[in-house]
Design goal:
The structure holds 2 protein chains of 2 kinds. Chain A is α+β, with helices and mostly antiparallel strands. Helices cover 35% and strands 14% of the residues of chain A. Mean pLDDT of chain B is 85; it is low at 1-32 and 36-44. The chains are: A alpha+beta, B alpha+beta.
Chain lengths: 684, 221
């Protein structure tokens, strides 16, 4: 191993309270983050068909070799394991969070953490450089995430105040410990409880907070004062300056208002970025309410009151309780639909006690009441805490509401997070394990929205086709029509494969932040071209000293994607299960469709028709645009044909979706093929 | 420009008053600024003021610490926030603007770190714009300069790996960054900051409290 690695992974067994290590070099071929996490899970979780709350579930929290360096936006921690939200099967899945946890962990000398077993009483983990202890958390259990972190700061450090240099072992720091923890939601095993670090850095999707809760693990604190090596410091500095000087903050994607508009003394908020971020997307407020909140945090919970004090207070409570607001708000949207239809309410078919009336939606009292009902599992909260799919199943409504679309959860218990015809998003969700929550192209369309006058559709697809290595030059990847080169075509096969492989490596293993990377189309550059795919390997190689190309990373990403698929297959995955909910495969009534996506109002996408590229403007909020020329739904027959093409492209058996031996061996995963074969689940 | 001159004038007057009370002071000799280092009533040294300063706008800082990582990398060739000569402290749970403290060396007009160094390791680099720097080869690790720094947290940094003190040199000596630094060159923290919350200035900032250093760097307001 060369630059960027500390060489050690911390291995904790909470059952027997042992602290051990794993040499990172054992997993070097998987590079970091998700790749190493999947490989360790494969090795250490013997029975992969267990539930998320089984003590034998293994949780990995891996960093990137680039964390703790000047590389922009890579101080992220990839969390993996079996998680409880997805439905009907609790898939082996992932989530990650930023902030300063990953970089602090590296400074303490650790590339990652593996958590096995279950503590018999609440515990927290205290990491001070190489010293790791498992501490009693009786005094922390029940506290919210903010109080927990501040209490752990006091417990983990001698400091009464963090305003000066503090002694740590034989070294010093001015920094507070980095703490990731759960709130009351995680303790109550709410299936959409998050892991939260600092104000609003959260591993939000999938419910890893509940997995921590099931293991009686309240918090992990880390203080590090050591160094992260860099193979070529000058090359890393040059890369950062190259990015900064050419693209500035616009190398990345939408970021919030810069604080230029008012004099400092009038400013009511300031910016907040994860360690070494070059774009900065978060905010801290002069009332400290919902500091560090982000996208689905600030925008989603209390969506009717977006941007208001109510939304800030509600999101502050979301962060303190440790709830994923995206699922919380999705739940509320569904309850509203049931309420409007007279199905749900006090004394109705579905008794909503102790929820206050949904007419009060948008008031703080309503949101507080809802969150407490869920977290305390009171009345209807007992079912709501298990996720809306399980609740709908208990109410006997699942089939009907997935058919009508009033329950807009097209796959695995995650709600829609995209606008048709962005087909790559639901396709990827379905072929994977969760809502992908990847914004690469989403942001491209957002940017394109603003510059359609100067950047015609044929030019934008040209840039994208040039940048999506290794499928360079195929513009049909970006045809959002339903024509022969559109969303059911070979181009879309490559398009989805590109996303699956690139994110598995560059975003989830090297851990370039989804909100900042890749940089494809940039509005304020003369040629409209962003820094990808040149930037990512440039940083990677400067830190590690390796000689990786973007395409090399794609191949490792394909390997990791296949390893994950093998784990899902051992959990029961088969082609027959990979079905989108019926509502997404037929035209929708506008009043139902309008509720489907809360966040993306309008996008502009390119379509190729009669030999000509043009833009199509889609606006869900405006039916006149929503139906204009592009499909609002996925054609089931054509999608089935598309899936067959995709399986063939990936080297999977088309009838089952199981990888073939040749595919796995070609990726150096012969041992995976052996295991699948022994279980009778190897593709032929 | 008239405003800047007025600032200088005021600054000189204030420091003359300080001289009268027996501490160090800045004076104007033939238009050049000097600091007089005194003991009691006796002036025994004169130190020219630095020709460059880092000022900052803490309300623009995103606490991303890119400056810290850049500093450590350019000077030490590795990433270590403890070895950064600029320190960014944060508390996300506070109310803005108390969420951030930017701890940047002030290149003091009256550099106590320079005055107290027994080996002249900490000195005024007259070849490079009078920047206050530490020559690590002369540092005996007594940490006197660290104790002398009147600011919290102290701006002179202890390198526990090499047992030497370090401080901001405005990038005069960056073994791992080849662009020209110092008062006539560039400073890497300024160059990498995504928020443009750091700026290099030539004029001496007010030495009173932090108002001369934590300034408005917003464009147009």
């Amino acid at each position: 191993m060369t630059g960027g690695y500390t060489g050690k992974i911390l291995r904790l067994n909470l059952t027997n309270r042992s602290v051990g290590t794993i040499d990172t070099s054992n997993y070097e071929e998987f590079v970091g983050g998700h790749g190493i996490g999947s490989a360790i899970f494969w090795d250490l979780c013997e029975d992969k068909a267990i539930s998320a709350f089984d003590p034998r579930n293994v949780v990995t929290m891996m960093t990137s070799p680039l964390a703790g360096t000047l590389t922009p936006s890579t101080s992220r921690t990839e969390v993996q394991g079996i998680a409880p939200l997805s439905y009907p099967i609790e898939w082996f899945t992932r989530s990650n969070f930023g902030g300063r946890f990953a970089s602090m962990l590296k400074a303490a000398g650790w590339d990652g953490i593996v958590i096995e077993g279950k503590a018999d009483n609440p515990v927290w983990i205290n990491i001070v450089n190489g010293n790791v202890t498992i501490e009693d958390a009786a005094g922390l259990w029940g506290k919210d995430t903010y109080d927990t972190q501040q209490e752990v700061w006091r417990l983990a450090s001698e400091a009464a105040k963090f305003d000066k240099w503090l002694t740590v072992n034989d070294s010093y720091t001015t920094q507070r410990p980095a703490v990731v923890c759960i709130g009351p939601a995680g303790e109550a095993l709410v299936r959409y409880a998050v892991l939260l670090h600092d104000g609003g850095m959260a591993a939000g999707h999938c419910g890893f907070g509940a997995v921590f809760g099931s293991k009686n693990l309240k918090a992990i604190s880390v203080i590090g004062t050591g160094s992260v090596t860099v193979a070529d410091p000058e090359a890393l500095i040059d890369a950062r300056l190259w990015l900064r000087r050419k693209w500035g903050r616009s190398s990345a994607l939408p970021y919030p208002t810069t604080p230029e508009a008012v004099p400092p003394e009038q400013a009511t908020f300031g910016p907040s970025g994860c360690q070494s971020c070059a774009s900065v997307c978060r905010t801290r407020y002069n009332d400290a309410l919902s500091n560090d909140v982000h996208c689905a945090g600030s925008g989603s919970f209390g969506v009717g009151a977006r941007g208001s004090k109510v939304a800030k207070r509600a999101n502050d409570l979301v962060q303190r309780l440790g709830v994923n607001p995206y699922q919380g708000e999705g739940t509320l949207q569904y309850l509203t639909q049931l309420y409007q239809r007279g199905i749900l309410g006090p004394g109705k078919t579905i008794d909503s006690t102790p929820l206050v009336s949904l007419d009060k939606y948008g008031t703080y009292e309503f949101h507080e009441n809802f969150l407490n009902t869920v977290v305390n599992r009171e009345g209807i909260g007992e079912l709501l805490a298990d996720g809306i799919m399980r609740a709908a199943e208990q109410w006997g409504r699942l089939e009907e509401d997935l058919d009508s679309g009033i329950l807009p959860y097209p796959q695995w218990g995650f709600q829609s997070h995209w606008v048709m015809p962005q087909a790559e998003w639901p396709y990827s969700n379905l072929l994977g394990d969760r809502d992908i929550n990847e914004h690469d192209f989403n942001f491209t369309w957002t940017i394109v929205n603003r510059i359609t006058d100067v950047l015609p559709a044929d030019k934008v697809v040209e840039i994208l086709a040039e940048k999506t290595v290794p499928y360079t030059g195929d513009t049909s990847m970006f045809d959002y029509s339903d024509g022969p080169t559109g969303i059911y075509s070979d181009g879309m096969v490559k398009r989805v494969a590109w996303s699956r492989h690139s994110t598995r490596f560059w975003k989830q293993s090297v851990l370039f932040c989804d909100w900042a990377w890749p940089s494809f189309v940039v509005a304020d550059q003369p040629d409209f071209k962003g820094a990808s795919p040149e930037a990512e390997p440039k940083f990677f190689n400067a830190v590690t000293g390796k000689n990786m190309t973007y395409a090399d990373g794609m191949e490792i990403g394909r390997k990791i994607w296949n390893l994950d698929r093998a784990i899902w297959i051992l959990q029961g995955r088969h082609r027959d299960m990979e079905k989108l909910a019926p509502f997404i495969m037929k035209p929708q009534e506008p009043d139902v469709a309008l509720n489907r996506n809360l966040y993306v109002d309008a996008i502009t996408v390119p379509i190729h028709k009669d030999g000509v590229w043009s833009y199509t403007f889609m606006d869900w909020m405006d039916p006149a645009h929503a139906y204009q020329g592009t499909p609002m739904y996925i054609d089931e027959t054509r999608f089935e044909e598309w899936r067959t093409k995709f399986y063939e492209f990936e080297g999977w058996e088309t009838s089952s979706g199981w990888p073939k031996r040749a595919t796995l061996e070609g990726l150096g995963l012969g041992f995976v093929a052996d295991e699948l074969e022994s279980k009778g689940k190897l593709g032929t | 420009m008239a405003e800047k001159n007025a600032e200088k004038k005021e600054w000189s007057r204030r420091n003359f008053l300080q001289l009268a009370s027996g501490t160090a002071a800045g004076v104007v000799f033939g238009g050049a600024l000097y600091t007089l280092v005194s003991s009691g009533d006796r002036v025994y040294a004169e130190v020219p003021v630095s020709e460059g300063y880092l000022v900052h706008d803490s309300t623009k800082c995103a606490t991303c610490q890119s400056c810290m990582l850049a500093c450590s990398l350019a000077h030490e060739g590795k990433e270590n926030t403890t070895l950064s000569r600029i320190q960014i402290l944060q508390n996300t749970f506070n109310r803005f603007p108390d969420t951030v403290t930017m701890s940047v060396c002030r290149q003091c007009v009256n550099p106590l770190c320079v005055q107290v160094c027994p080996t002249h390791a900490c000195h005024v680099d007259t070849d490079n714009g009078n920047v206050r720097v530490i020559d690590e080869s002369k540092c005996i690790g007594c940490q006197t300069c660290i104790q002398a720094c009147p600011f919290i947290p102290h701006r002179t940094i202890w390198n526990a790996e090499k047992n030497v003190a370090m401080k901001c040199d405005l990038c005069i000596n960056t073994p791992y960054w080849s662009e020209t630094g110092g008062p006539d060159g560039k400073q890497l923290c300024v160059e990498v900051c995504p928020m443009e919350a750091l700026e290099f200035v030539k004029n001496v900032p007010s030495q009173t409290d932090n108002v001369g250093y934590d300034v408005n760097l917003r464009e147009g307001v």
